Amino acid sequence: MFFKKRSSTAPAFLVVGLGNPGIQYENTRHNAGFMMLDALAKKLDIKVDRAKFRAYCGTGLVNGQQVMLMKPQTFMNNSGEAVSQAMRMFKIPPERTLLLFDDISLPVGKMRVRRNGSAGGQNGVKSIIALSGSDQFPRIKAGIGAKPHPDYDLAKWVLSRFTDAEKKEMERVAEDAANAALLILEGQIEEAMNRYSH
Q: Among 14, 21, 30, 141, which one carries the catalytic annotation?
């Protein structure tokens, strides 16, 4: 049968979870994007384990279209290197590149779905915007909480681990993010914004 396998088809959509590679960064606040992507990968039964574009990638079909899930391994601040490479290779526009990442301006347990926007101080997003030349990326932001006090070192804060209670909240947010991502992949971003921005 001719159309048995679609794996050679170029992906029509790219979904990127932002974070830092390595076990020392697991369950840290800055890896909220990886957590959200893992929840989506589990829902879609896609293994994100193929090394490509300085990232771990996995592809699968969603509503008949090929989708690539990606976890850049470049460290957060250079996320754009992996993302822009994949976008160029497969000619995927920013509007079809969904970014999942952490946001310190939102408390843990809160989530925002947006059609586009600035980096808002998030260095991974800053890198992607700089190297792609666009800020038209749909995005899902998970709150990781503000610094405990103004003098607290930001790098130290985003690389700190979630408490057990926060981890439970993050699991719920990751599940909501996966559902919102599915709506966005179906072209229903308005619905995703209305239903999952909380």
A: 30
